[in-house]
User: What shape does this take?
Amino acid sequence: MLSHSFYIDGVTCSGCLRKIYSLKPNYPKIELSVDMSRNTLLLLAPKTESTNSIQKDIESLGFKLHPIEDKNDALKINIKENRSFLIKIAVAALFAGNIMLFSVSIYSGAEGDLGKYFEWLTFILFLPILFYSATPFYINTLDSFKRKRLSIDVPITVSIILGAGLSVYNLFYSFGKTYFDSLAILVFLLLSSRYFLKKMQQKYLGISYLKSFLPSLARKMSSSGDECEMLSAESIKVNDIMLVKKGELIPLDGQLVSKKASLNNSVITGEARPVEITQNQNCYSGTMLLSERAVIKVTSTSSNSRISLLFEKLDAEIKKPSQLTSFTDRASSLFVIILFIIGFIFCCFYLFVDPEEAIHRFLALIILACPCAIALATPLSQSLSLIKASKKGLLIKNAEVFERFVKIKNIVFDKTGTLTVGEFKLIKWERGSPSLHDLQVIYELERNSSHPLANAFKNYYWDHLGKSKAPCLETKSHKEVSGVGVSCQIEMDNFELKSYKLNKTDYTAVGLYKNNSLLNVAYLGDELREDSFKTIKMFLKNKFSIFILSGDNEGAVKSVGLKLGLSNKNLFFNKNPEQKHTWVQSHPLTLMVGDGVNDSLALASSHLSIAASGSMESTLKASDVYLSQPGLYQIYELYELSKETLKVIRRNLGFSLVYNLLGATFALMGYISPLLAAILMPLSSLFVLSSSLWGTSFLRGFNRASKTSTPKGPEFNLTPKYLEASH
Amino acid sequence: MNILMLMIPLTLILAGVFLYLFIKATKQGQFDDLVTPAYEILIDESEDTPENLTPQSTTMEKANGN
Assistant: This one.
């Protein structure tokens, strides 16, 4: 039996499940199971049986399948870890519960032989917890010693071992009371809260949906070229020939065999405008075919395609453990440790006064000041906000981003491709819009040119007349002279498009000539993104210093700066990558927003970095946040989100600190017994938990807010499905 | 009170049996997915058997035809 696992999109109810299960009788040899908690589908098929047809059937029901490449068996490891965690919790629950039964008798006054019997029982029952259930804490503590990093598990381990040691000492020497009950409950509650957190993270963050918008099936052409077979994209090998139809995503990287093809490359370049490629040029998986059909020779397997590699990198970054790296976390665990040390010193002195009471109070302190609430305070609110951000199309690599964003003072934007769209666009005509015939002439002139200006004209034509209405004028003696322009003959008239000298520098002008007389002049330029102005205005309102750092010339940068209302001293032009890098280094607390390779160095060195949609690979690698949708306003939304998240974190931490301080004081003064402490502790965790889930009114409305940055062409919106708000 | 000497070990053995069963169930994967089974129960099992599928599909076809 071979197992094939897939991520499956769109299974949300029993109806969906029924549809999929109704396929079962058609494939008696294949076992099929859906896991809705992980959104996965598992197919178990005998080696001889192909799963292609059942995959096709499931996809035809409207559920997208995305094969999981189990390189490291991450999913299986994950399931295994969850199981062992669950067993640890079960052991802790069982023994802690039984310990409590006997402890109640001890507390209510069981004495003599019976009391001793009960105490020994609690000790024996505590052993599995000490040596089995609590092992994750020991492992993490050792790990943090190895890495020389403070972790919340250190005080936990110390309290468990110290408490157990003291109790055992008391047990053997009949010195006083034992505290196995409190320790057992401590371990059980801590384990449970961690399991909950882990589950939360797994559900939303653990599994990568990044790959999920790549098509899982490819149409392989037989060598004779007349037959096509639908196969899973993984099974296609290098040098196989595949067929892609209009409107489909290209499943694998390849080389075009057909003469010509038009692609939407937005996945890779961020540009939603069609790109024409000719025979033997490369095309990448994830790009959409806009022309009729294309035959493509595969050049890399699905796991090695450019986009998969990119996603793998992004994935690895996202999955990096971000626990306890942020300042608040470290500070709070330091606080707990200091509290412990103070308690310890206090008890050392108090031992001379009343040894039993001293240990009693210290234990109450340990249990009460247990870092539970503090440990939960930050990661929980962070992961909740991460989920919210990812639903808006913001891919955040680590949870510290929120904390760092709030500290930011300067924001630096790259110009081309970040503030602007990054391509030429027809801005205006000098003599009013040209006639239909003139437009058709222009289209014919530029039809075969791949010059950026030609694309601008073609886009203008498509925008005004629609893509389907390509003109078919008869042209003769078509000529393209690079650096000058294009010319051709249409119905006895000689038409020309060539550059037109202009005094102003921020536009490029092109003149349309008919038999050497000027018909019209077109002004072309790189346009600002729709929401650049709004974004900058909001940031200026919040007292950020905004800078533009561009490699472009003075005129171009100044005209953009003027439009955005930035003063000239905040504009920097003619900067090469190294200069950008040193500029950012000399300005601490800077947020850098960029998209190109030339920005990546500066991105990597800035306090916080955001890669605009359509960024290059190196830029993605260097930055902390990736905007998966065009537009800049998301950055402002991220700022608001960070602010609110920090508010919740501060509220949680504030509560935990007050609780711990008060608790510690009362415990040391002897007002709180270990039992009462054990009751108070989960209550504090519960408070932090509900506070994080409740958030603020802004956070609750974050994903409900109207879409402020809608991408231009809906047909080019290749946003992965998971990024859209789930239903 | 001497009966406690007998009763407590008995309860612990019983608890141990339950723990063993729980561990066994966990290792078999009963707790891996707590979402799907809740929906699965709503699906009529009869639909899955091939014998019942034929009339089912014909009614479906009829419905589609109309």
